[in-house]
Amino acid sequence: MAFICVDISCLYIFLIYTVFDCTLSSNMEIKVNPPQDFEIVDPGYLGYLCLQWQPPLDLDNFKECTVEYELKYRNIGSEQWKTIITKNLQYKDGFDLNKGVEAKIHTLLSRHCTNGPEVQSSWSEATYWTSEQGSVETKIQDMDCVYYNWQYLLCSWKPGMGVHIDTNYNLFFWYEGLDHALQCDDYIKANGKNIGCRFPHLESSDYKDFFICVNGSSASKPIRSSYFIFQLQNIVKPLPPDSLSLTVENTFEINLKWSMPKGPIPARCFIYEIVLTEDDISCMSTTGENEMNITRTSNDSKKLCFSVRSKMNMYCSDDGIWSEWSDKQCWKGDIWKDTLIFFVIPFAFASLFVILLAYLISYKQRALLKMIFLTKKEVFSHPEALC
Ligand SMILES: *[C@@H]1O[C@H](CO)[C@@H](O)[C@H](O)[C@H]1NC(C)=O
Ligand SMILES: *[C@@H]1O[C@H](CO)[C@@H](O)[C@H](O)[C@H]1NC(C)=O
Ligand SMILES: *[C@@H]1O[C@H](CO)[C@@H](O)[C@H](O)[C@H]1NC(C)=O
Predict the structure, then answer these.
(1) Which fold does the domain 36-126 belong to in CATH?
(2) Is the beta carbon of 251 within 6 A of some atom in ligand 3?
(3) Coiled-coil annotation: which residues (predicted)?
(4) Alpha-carbon distance values, 305 to 51, 72, 244, 332 (Å)
């Protein structure tokens, strides 16, 4: 009996406490200010921007707890916001500077801080546009960048439409690790104008955003800049495989082998596409190995040929560019036999015959010469007889 009494009194105390707690927090509604001085700063890295802010005013009541910020940002026109929750006072990310950037941030006080529900401030907002000069038509066209064999980056472009003949374009690039944006120092030129860039050796530049800006100048009108972001491992075009070999194992099976392209790309990063031609029928297959066993569709095909091309696979990149096709490697089993019977053997016989003939002729000639010589000698050795 006594036990139950104690238990009930506990329950009462608990109920009273809870009610009191609720009224307390709803009466003194906790408010927090948004972060101050929220801004988007462009350090000149061609798209890598810094979003920064200062702590909100009147934070003194929450000295004991860490304030968090919820940051949302996107390129103007894109559907989705990227959301970040952070305790820091800045955040950096890459943006497409062909478009504007918008961002908003608010302060968050967790349940731990308020002893009640989570509290959010109103939003602080900021936008950023690069100074847009010139019309859209003055931008370069058909920008194409390829990272050859994961070694040499090459970009090329065409001039904008209707730009004046004096227009020239310049390329700048930056990636994390460089102090500042660099200008291309090996331009590809046509008629004295820059239409592409050969990049220098790029150290530790993979798996990070690579930013490019191509801007230009002309005496007649301003030129609009173009911005590009990509990751180098996604635009790799390997060399084609080499040292192809085709072995006919038995009547039905063929073994195809090749060497992976030479260079810095690891073996595990390749996928290969193989085209096998049996007489006039071609079939295609892919593999990650540098060998493949294939069953022939017909056991009396006269001619088998194959070639291979390579690409970066999904374990090493999100995308890639197929290499050129390798040289063709062929097997002409029966044709060889035919050649042997109808060409090599008759040729060998013919050659033998010719050699024999030549020998006979030269032998006869020598005999003839000897005879003449001997007769002449005979003639000269009996001069008196002649007189
Ligand atoms: C092109 O961009 C670079 C790098 O941002 C800048 O230093 C340069 O002044 C720009 N040139 C023109 C003509 O806008
Ligand atoms: C192809 O066949 C050969 C011999 O039968 C075998 O040694 C090799 O492992 C096979 N290769 C593959 C990729 O299956
Ligand atoms: C080749 O295939 C044909 C039918 O497809 C069959 O009759 C013949 O025996 C095969 N030849 C050999 C050497 O296996």
Answers:
(1) Immunoglobulin-like (2.60.40)
(2) yes
(3) none
(4) 58, 57, 10, 9
